[in-house]
Amino acid sequence: MGRLVFLFASSLLLMVAATTVSAATVEHSFYVKNFTVTRLCNRQVITAVNDSLPGPSLRVREGDKLIIHVFNKSPYNMTIHWHGVFQLLSAWADGPEMITQCAIRPGNKYTYKFRIINQEGTLFWHAHSSFLRATLHGAIIIRPRVRHSYPFPTPYREVPIVLGEWWNANVVDVETQALALGVGPNLSNAYTINGWPGDLYPCSQNQMYKHRVKQGKTYLLRIINAAVSSHLFYKIANHNVTVVAVDARYTNPYVTDVMVISPGQTVDVLLTANQPVGSYYMTANNYASGSGTAVGVPFNPTTTRGVIIYQGASSSTTPLMPVVPAFNDTPTAHKFFTELTSLVGGRHWVPVPLNVDLKMFVTVGTALDVCPPNVSCLGRPPVGAALSASMNNVSFVSPTSLSLLQAFFFNVGGVYTTDFPANPPVQFDYTNPSINLDPPLLFAPKGTRITKVKFNSTVEMVMQNTAIIGVENHPMHLHGFDFHVLAQGFGNFNPATDTPKYNLVNPQMRNTVSVPVGGWAVIRFVANNPGVWFMHCHFDGHMAIGLSTAFIVENGPTPDTTLPPPPTDLPQC
């Protein structure tokens, strides 16, 4: 008996030791401040973390605890969001301003503490206040636990590729001006790869990202679209890649020569250096889904490029250039968005929940607002109205005195209502441009109307794009959860003919889905994470004018399904 007790105790100690070895505490300090860089012939003051663009990469393993001390030495209110991290029982660390916390004011600090649980792959962090995300962002690289391997051959190297957007202006002023005029923000001046615009832009011959490879080796590219308002095609000349994960979820291997990545999305691909020794451009250019519409949504038509250089390549060799997709190549974009599937049985794979507790049909798109005080409303859209956006004809307004999570946790009334409509208040021909001739359909009332659901309930949402003002592909991001993307299509969603198209076997899982231009997407998730979770368009200009909502997930029945109190250093409004 004593020997059995000894063996059991020894086994328990081994388990504890294994857990200790496989999980660590990763601690960083983020100093947010202004500094000056030179891009596109201009010296520009930007706000960044630790004087770097992109900011520092966080390299962790599944199970690790992160402690990030954020010191705001900038002149702006700001927060940091850990995009795609579940924040299981740590909603206070999620970061969206006025949703889970008040802003970190200039001169103040806040420490974010959370664990990476049941996630592997690539995510990223970014500011969640105004347009600061343009320069306040960086990669989150989540490797498997110790002694766990990837579900694909181990790569020779891992390479973060952060796609971004650059303005020759103060990005906070860009948003402030747009809101003051009641119009969309000014277009960016360039796209970037790992902070560099590339040699197609003025004064940028020596400001291009370069990555050196060895012939025959395979590299894991962790690609992040950190752009503020642009879907981006990404290609490498003469090379195919194999997609192995999206949004930190493993996929079945998918071979392609082109990717399209929406703001807020990540794609992990294997690149094998199997071409003749030489140099090959990589490119990123805009997928401008709304550019071909009657309204003609303006976009930045430029291309950024970096270069893959094989070991032994001559420096005098001109790199090969890929044929970049046309800016309105919706067939190519839709093919990539819809053909990815989950790796069934892979680590952290979750089967599709089949019983649905709450079904929602939600319109998403732009709208109009009666010209507010102190707004000129002199530009597009019609004079006398301000550009707005809505979900189910509700244009979301953030609280001003208390975050939604604080109001929920402390049961404070008057901050929000839980009457967000599960269906459009008026049914219409959603994708028919002629609806713009019906003025009452164009204006969306403002409100802080959200949805409350019980713990562990299953939510299905059909997101329907509308042609109000103009159709456009909207990247919709849900905080706190990944969801199954059951189906996507064009036109008005038809339950009779489109429901049979649902993939209930191996649909891709994401935290950000692109609702097709003039079309729809269906997602499903289990609300198993108590707290308040923001859902919004990841075009910052659209989020700022109301293309958002939120979910309250009630506490579960046990202490380990109950949201703990806020940390003592939580910023106050």
TrEMBL record:
Q: Which UniProt keywords apply?
A: Apoplast, Copper, Glycoprotein, Lignin degradation, Metal-binding, Oxidoreductase, Repeat, Secreted, Signal
| GO molecular function per UniProt | copper ion binding; hydroquinone:oxygen oxidoreductase activity; oxidoreductase activity
Required co-factor(s) are: Cu cation
The protein's matches in PANTHER family, at most eight in alphabetical order, are given as: LACCASE-7, MULTI-COPPER OXIDASE
Which coarse location class applies to the principal site listed for this UniProt protein?
Answer: secreted
Q: Where in the cell is it found?
A: Secreted, Extracellular space, Apoplast
An example GO biological process term is: lignin catabolic process
- PROSITE patterns from the entry? MULTICOPPER_OXIDASE1 (PS00079), MULTICOPPER_OXIDASE2 (PS00080)
Q: What is its EC number?
A: 1.10.3.2
What domain of life?
Eukaryota
What's this protein's name?
Laccase
| The keyword Glycoprotein belongs to this UniProt entry's keyword annotation | yes
In the UniProt record, the signal sequence range is 1-23
Record-stated family: Belongs to the multicopper oxidase family.
Keyword Repeat, does the record have it?
yes
What does the cofactor section's free text say about binding? Binds 4 Cu cations per monomer.
- Report the protein's function: Lignin degradation and detoxification of lignin-derived products.
Reaction catalysed by this chain? Answer: 4 hydroquinone + O2 = 4 benzosemiquinone + 2 H2O
Q: Which cellular components does GO assign to this protein? A: apoplast
Q: Where is the Plastocyanin-like domain?
A: 33-145, 158-313, 419-556
What InterPro entries does this protein map onto?
Answer: Cu-oxidase-like_N, Cu-oxidase_2nd, Cu-oxidase_C, Cu-oxidase_fam, Cu_oxidase_CS, Cu_oxidase_Cu_BS, Cupredoxin, CuRO_1_LCC
